[in-house]
UniProtKB/TrEMBL annotation:
Pfam family, one: Glyco_transf_92
Localization of this protein: Membrane
Protein name: Glycosyltransferase family 92 protein
Any single Gene Ontology cellular-component annotation: membrane
Lipid bilayer topology: Single-pass membrane protein
Organism (species): Candidatus Criblamydia sequanensis CRIB-18
Segments passing through the bilayer: none
Keyword terms of this UniProt record: Glycosyltransferase, Membrane, Transferase, Transmembrane, Transmembrane helix
Highest classification ranks of the organism: Bacteria, Pseudomonadati, Chlamydiota, Chlamydiia, Parachlamydiales
């Protein structure tokens, strides 16, 4: 729907039915699955695990991809004016062929006080409350212009290559950090406690992402088509 043609998907210790879900896409050559079985004890270790995965993907993408979006499975690119992300990147590159990295800002979504997303609903149509604007971002890069991956959010570019930051009037990344209340309490809170963050603090972070803002609206235009593709309508 957004113009992405191929996915390098890294499975970091997931134990659900991911292979069953992904098999049709793997057979069609849309998804390339990599098992990434590295555990961690602290947040910094997880950042390093992510960077190694991204570096692995960048190495492959340099031979295969014109643009590479670096993001997690709970993050969704949402163009505001352009019909797709691929069209937005075409417009960006047309302005300057030396652009090698595009920064796009997060909108962090909360649980919307929903215990569990119903099976006949999409997460993106159910969880609408969010924390508004953020100074955190993720990036889309031209792989051949990247020197190395510096963090899960940013790459270092080769000399003379440029980076641009796109504002919320152009694109946003919907980051469903907490997912629903069930995921928050059963998965997210214990995970953060493992990092020595107490549950009260985690729940305060989650609460700060449960506000009504204008940033819930841009993704809504994609819901009808996505529901059809997911077999929900």
């Amino acid at each position: 729907m957004q113009g992405f043609e191929h996915f390098y998907l890294y499975n970091n210790l997931s134990h659900d039915n991911y292979k069953e879900v992904l098999e049709p896409y793997i057979e069609k050559g849309i998804v390339e699955l990599e098992e990434w079985p590295y555990d961690h004890e602290i947040a910094d270790e997880f950042d390093a695990i992510q960077c190694k995965a991204y570096s692995h993907a960048l190495k492959k993408a340099k031979k295969e991809a014109h643009w590479l979006a670096i993001l997690d499975a709970d993050e969704f690119f949402v163009p505001i004016k352009a019909p797709t992300i691929s069209k937005l990147l075409q417009e960006t590159e047309a302005r300057d062929k030396k652009i090698g990295q595009v920064h796009c800002f997060w909108i962090v979504f909360g649980t919307s006080h929903i215990w569990e997303v119903p099976k006949d609903k999409l997460m993106i149509e159910t969880l609408l409350l969010n924390g508004g604007t953020s100074n955190l971002y993720k990036c889309i890069v031209r792989p051949k212009f990247v020197d190395y991956c510096a963090s899960p959010h940013h790459c270092i570019l080769k000399p003379t290559i440029k980076m641009v930051t796109l504002g919320y009037d152009t694109v946003q990344i919907n980051h469903y950090w907490t997912r629903d209340e069930k995921f928050l309490h059963e998965i997210k809170v214990p995970r953060r406690e493992k990092y020595s963050t107490d549950s009260t603090t985690v729940l305060q972070w989650a609460s700060a992402s449960n506000n009504e803002t204008i940033y819930s609206k841009p993704i809504l235009r994609f819901i009808p088509e996505l529901r059809k593709r997911m077999g929900l309508d």
